[in-house]
Amino acid sequence: MVELKKITKTFNQKGNVTHALCDVTLSVPKGKIVGVIGESGAGKSTLIRCVNLLERPTSGEVYVNGENLMRLSQKQLALARKNIGMIFQHFNLLSSRTAGENISLPLELNHIDKKDREKRVDELLDWVGLKDKKNEYPANLSGGQKQRIAIARTLANNPKVLLSDEATSALDPATTQSILSLLKNINKELNITILLITHEMDVVKNICDNIAVMNSGKLIEKGNVAEIFSHPKSELTQRFIDSTFRIDIPIDYQNRLKPFRESGKHPLVKLHITGNTVDEPILSEIVRKFHINNNIISAQMDYVGGVKFGIMLAEFIGSPENENQAIEYLMNKNMNVIVLGYV
Ligand SMILES: Nc1ncnc2c1ncn2[C@@H]1O[C@H](COP(=O)(O)OP(=O)(O)OP(=O)(O)O)[C@@H](O)[C@H]1O
Q: Which CATH class is domain 2-242?
């Protein structure tokens, strides 16, 4: 549905050159939800704005629904854009119009007659669960309600693709969940393809089929959610995955933690359990093979895209030699093991 081919975007402001996008190729298959994740300044907004040519790439090609947007005249582009809806972090509602009038705006611009507009607005308000807010002004709506109205407005002309530019970044966790569920419903029930950008892996984990990871204008990793979560290739991707877990070292352990081995202390390790290691009994193996005790301090497992993965904090208690051998054994099994210190 969306094909970005070798997109580059260079900004040149008074001789100050920024390479916001470098050779980015990404496809969003019809009916899927694809999430682009990256830190601030990675180029996410620039990328999503290239899809509807709000930002014109310096080079590369943009196909939406089979049409090369870079080759269209302004008039043809305006038509093609009707297939592409967009929602934003700060909703972009007109404060002088009621919720219903905001939703009606694209229909007015599309010269739909008043009776049909009214019917469609009511339908859309019902769809986003805000029938009773039709005559409210945006100032009287909560953040989540404003985003629902913005979503209804973007659905008014039946787009084929929805672009979501950090649509949940200004919302609290519970409201974020409800907006993500709404996006998932839009995708499933209205068969609208979604490309979203975010800096939160939780968003991606919840609703995306595929993930692309961006860093400094480059797309450094892409794949389906299960692949990425089970076999992250880059350190940045691993960090994003880790951010979905809330595992902290207990205060008591923090107080005792030393950076180097001391007599009577044992390694405190963080284990990333993903991919092949998840279903193998390698933790019981190290206990048997190396005669150590594996004292689990905290652990969290999750299930994404049919794949189990997780993080564990544990203390390995044995002789220094056996502890080291156990850690080496896990590393040789391709488990990501980090020795946090000694407790
Ligand atoms: N209109 C512009 N003129 C000049 N530089 C720009 C412009 N828009 C973006 N940039 C630069 O391009 C780079 C990528 O910015 P972009 O906004 O796409 O990143 P982002 O990943 O969306 O970041 P954030 O999450 O903070 O919004 C940054 O270095 C930014 O300063």
A: alpha beta
